């Protein structure tokens, strides 16, 4: 298959994932902003191609009383690596650009993967910061710029009530401080 055909199929699969996530947010009655990914709609600070300095998220989701989180939706098939199931991510360039967004806007960024193995709509959430810690670089031809993240590193969320899990993942360092003896 030609590179252009593969890219086109990946874009279509990504749009399907975003649409499924939007429907899931609606079913959970969560407030959100769906970010138009048309390049002409963004300020020059986001850049284009190699000049890109910040990656825009797919969604901004409002947790009333807590604030916003940014979400980048992924719709990839799971991947086997060293007898473990997980997912791939462009750990080098993309994650750095996502973390630039987080730092500049002071909004936590989460990757959300559609769990294609489940009949119900289950989403696998991982903070962009955890991707840096948990990602294992892949050294296979054709996927050199990717990192593997074990499925065990994700928080599984099926309904809105499950979203509380994200706070314990994101702020696990606070538990260590709280539990420390002084």
Automatic annotation (TrEMBL):
It comes from the Bacteria. This is Uncharacterized protein.
């Amino acid at each position: 298959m030609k590179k252009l055909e593969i890219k086109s199929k990946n874009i279509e699969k990504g749009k399907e994932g975003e649409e499924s996530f939007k429907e899931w947010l609606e079913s959970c009655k969560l407030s959100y902003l769906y970010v138009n990914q048309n390049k002409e709609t963004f300020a020059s600070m986001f850049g284009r191609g190699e000049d890109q300095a910040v990656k825009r998220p797919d969604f901004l989701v409002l947790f009333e009383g807590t604030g916003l989180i940014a979400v980048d939706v992924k719709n990839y098939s799971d991947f086997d690596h060293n007898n473990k199931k997980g997912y791939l991510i462009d750990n080098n360039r993309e994650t750095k650009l996502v973390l630039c967004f987080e730092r500049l806007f002071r909004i936590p960024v989460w990757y959300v993967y559609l769990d294609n193995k489940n009949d119900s709509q289950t989403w696998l959430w991982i903070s962009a910061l955890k991707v840096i810690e948990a990602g294992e670089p892949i050294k296979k031809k054709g996927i050199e710029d990717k990192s593997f993240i074990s499925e065990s590193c994700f928080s599984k969320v099926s309904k809105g009530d499950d979203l509380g899990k994200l706070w314990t993942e994101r702020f696990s360092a606070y538990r260590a401080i709280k539990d420390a003896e002084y």
